[in-house]
Structure formats: C-alpha cells, structure tokens
C-alpha cells in the first residue's frame, strides 16, 4: 500500500510539471510561446500559427510520456520534432514581421498594437524593423499606448545612456594647412621641395586607434593611405607623402580617435582577482549579458553592489592611463551622464580595465602609476548615471576608432573560478 502510494505520488509529480523535462532547454521556450500564439491566432489568419498550435500539443504529450518511460528509444524522434517546431516558430516570427511592416505601411495602428503587444519573443529582433516600429509608435501613441513598446523604448534609452556614460572618450579633431594645434594627439608636416610629409603624433602613454578623412586640392599622393591606423604610445606615425602640383594647393584632415589599439589581443588564460578586499563578499547587482544595460558592447561588464567608500583594488596589474575624481554628482537621470568618476588601467596585452562610479576624490592613483594586482586604486561611490551605490567594472579593447567592446574574463573567488558573472550571486575575494 505504501509502495503504491509512493509510485502514484511520483507519477503525479512528474505530470504536475508544466513542461516536459527532456531537452527542456529547447522545448520549454517553445511551449511557453503557445499561449502567446493562441492569442495571436484570434487576430491573425496565418495558417502557420494554427498548425504550430496543433503540432505543439502533440509534441508536448510525447515529451511527458518520455519523462515517465524507461524506454528512451524515442528521444531522438522527440528532439527532431522539437527542432521542426523551432523552425516553424522562426517562420511565424518572419511572417509576423511582414504583417507588422504591412500594418505600418497601411497605417493600421490597431493591427500594429495587437502584434507588438503580443509579447512574442523576437518580434522586434531586426534592428531596422525596430527602428520603424519606434518611429511609427511615436507618431501614434497618443491614440493608444503600448506597454510593451514603452518598456522596450525605456530599456533602449537606458542602454544608450549607459553606453555614453561608460564609453571611452572619442575625440574629434581637424587639421588644415593653416591651422596647427599643439595637442597630445595631432598632425605635423615637413616640406621638402615639392613634397610634404604628413605625420600623426601621439604623446599619450597608451596606444590609440585613429580614423582619418582627408581632403586634397591640387595635391598628388602616390598611394591611397589607410583610413584607420594605430599610433603607439609616445610615437609618431608617417601617414603619407604629398606632392604639390600647383600654387593653389590645400589639404585638410578630419580625424577621430579612441583609447587603445584595435589589434590588442586579450590573454584569455589570465585569472583576475575580485576588485575588493580579501575575505570580503559583494553581491553582483548586474552580471554578464543582461536585459538591462549589460548587453551589446557592454555585455561583459559587471556591477558589484557596495556601500560608498568601499576599497576598490586592481583586478590585474597595469599602468594607470586615465583618472577622474572631481565629480560629486550622480543619479538615475540623463543629467548625470558624464559625471562619473573612474580609473582606467592599461594591461600588458593592450586591454583596459575601467573601475567606474567612484566617489568624489575617490581615486588614490595618478596617470603613469604602475599598480600591482590587488593594490588599492580608489573608493567606490555613486557618481554619474547610476541607480545606486555600486562599482561598475569591465575589461575592454578598441575595435575601431569609434567603438570598443567588453571582454569576458575569469575571476578567482572563494567559490572557485568564476567564468560567468551572474546577477544576484555573491562572491568572496581571496
């Protein structure tokens, strides 16, 4: 009697699960989409939606049977069916993209709202379609607001503000033959007879990636120069040699640059220490690749929740290349963008670590200082575009003169080697 009760209880427990456990990583997202697709079926005449809803019921029943069966010979067939369903789902998304574009073109705002508010995963995955949808919605939202789009726009705006707040300094400069500026980065010219040697110089202690747009009048050049170059720290780069062909000659150079070499290659074997004191613990308030602000170019950033004034230690040895410590302003608003204090550390492989949102006068290092792994570099704060006291940290590199990307790194902790920084997890420094 007891045995029968246990068997019955186990059997009921398995069936009480909402979705089959076999290949759950593939099946569960599809099963979860069924309710959304059934709602879409009420306003869409797409045959693909109707067929999907029929097929998914059969597949789910087979999945539950496999969960309770000792015979696993049908697993391969079940996996094959899941993959077919996934392709059907992707085709539905494609068809709904077309319907959404059609609704925009025909100015059918009611249909537009029904589609976007469905909440179907991937409905605005295409950047070009998302942009069209945002523009169309902005023109019509006084008629009816879309909770889905309002949230989506808010997230995108938050991400944009965060990227602008945390991004490297991207410097625009220009040069012409009558205007020479004495700056840390610029152009020098040297005339020899009818030729002019044009060189870029970099007086900083770090490499830069620089993009050039030249303009010539009555000038010859033997070969087209590169549009993007790397200038090493404290060096000069001969860009090109011009030949003057007449009296009315002129040449201009517009250029833009960012910190770091686009050719830098991260040492993926390196193990970083956590940026706080040994034996102390801090919770990750936002980990890698989240739906908030750590995505796109910032997806491998990490936020550690910590009280203002917590000691911040270097996670890796390097050279201090940039420091800001003068701001006492911070908050969750655009007006605080650019107000964050930070320390940047250049590593031996050319990558850069940024420690962000430090308190006013919270940096204890200067440009040019060499720091060891675990050495004190500052104190945490809440300056800049920030929702609360925390330390934002990322390792990144330049990928062009106008763009950077964060790098996935490993951290040593008391819990072991952390390869994926996860939101809400707590890690102890060792």
TrEMBL record:
<dbReference type="Pfam" id="PF01551">
    <property type="entry name" value="Peptidase_M23"/>
</dbReference>
<protein>
    <submittedName>
        <fullName>Peptidoglycan DD-metalloendopeptidase family protein</fullName>
    </submittedName>
</protein>
<dbReference type="InterPro" id="IPR016047">
    <property type="entry name" value="M23ase_b-sheet_dom"/>
</dbReference>
<dbReference type="InterPro" id="IPR011055">
    <property type="entry name" value="Dup_hybrid_motif"/>
</dbReference>
<dbReference type="GO" id="GO:0004222">
    <property type="term" value="F:metalloendopeptidase activity"/>
</dbReference>
<feature type="domain" description="M23ase beta-sheet core">
    <location>
        <begin position="299"/>
        <end position="401"/>
    </location>
</feature>
<dbReference type="InterPro" id="IPR050570">
    <property type="entry name" value="Cell_wall_metabolism_enzyme"/>
</dbReference>
């Amino acid at each position: 009697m007891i045995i029968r009760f246990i068997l019955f209880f186990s059997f009921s427990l398995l069936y009480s699960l909402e979705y089959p456990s076999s290949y759950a990583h593939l099946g569960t997202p599809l099963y979860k989409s069924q309710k959304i697709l059934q709602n879409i079926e009420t306003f869409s005449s797409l045959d693909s939606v109707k067929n999907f809803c029929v097929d998914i019921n059969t597949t789910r029943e087979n999945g539950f049977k496999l969960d309770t069966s000792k015979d696993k010979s049908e697993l391969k067939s079940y996996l094959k069916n899941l993959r077919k369903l996934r392709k059907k789902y992707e085709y539905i998304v494609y068809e709904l993209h077309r319907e959404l574009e059609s609704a925009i073109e025909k100015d059918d705002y009611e249909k537009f709202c029904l589609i976007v508010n469905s909440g179907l995963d991937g409905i605005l995955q295409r950047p070009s379609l998302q942009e069209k949808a945002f523009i169309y919605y902005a023109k019509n939202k006084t008629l009816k607001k879309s909770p889905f789009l309002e949230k989506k726009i808010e997230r995108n705006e938050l991400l944009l503000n965060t990227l602008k707040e945390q991004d490297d300094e991207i410097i625009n400069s220009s040069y012409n033959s009558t205007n020479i500026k004495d700056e840390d980065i610029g152009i020098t010219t040297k005339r020899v007879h009818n030729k002019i040697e044009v060189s870029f110089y970099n007086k900083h202690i770090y490499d830069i990636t620089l993009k050039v747009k030249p303009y010539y009048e009555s000038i010859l050049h033997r070969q087209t120069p590169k549009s993007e170059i790397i200038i090493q720290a404290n060096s000069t780069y001969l860009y090109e040699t011009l030949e003057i062909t007449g009296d009315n000659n002129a040449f201009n150079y517009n250029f833009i640059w960012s910190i770091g070499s686009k050719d830098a290659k991260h040492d993926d074997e390196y193990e970083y220490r956590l940026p706080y004191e040994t034996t102390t613990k801090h919770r990750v308030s936002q980990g890698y690749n989240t739906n908030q602000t750590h995505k796109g170019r910032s997806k491998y950033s990490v936020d550690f929740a910590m009280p203002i004034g917590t000691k911040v230690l270097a996670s890796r040895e390097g050279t201090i290349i940039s420091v800001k410590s003068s701001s006492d302003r911070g908050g969750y608003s655009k007006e605080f963008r650019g107000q964050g204090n930070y320390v940047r550390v250049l590593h031996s492989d050319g990558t850069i670590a940024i420690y962000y949102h430090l308190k006013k006068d919270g940096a204890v290092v200067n440009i040019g200082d060499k720091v060891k792994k675990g050495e004190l570099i500052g104190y945490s704060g809440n300056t800049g575009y920030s929702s609360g006291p925390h330390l934002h940290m990322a390792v990144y590199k330049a990928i062009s003169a106008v763009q950077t990307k964060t790098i996935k790194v490993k951290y040593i902790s008391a819990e072991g080697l952390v390869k994926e920084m996860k939101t809400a997890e707590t890690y102890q420094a060792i």
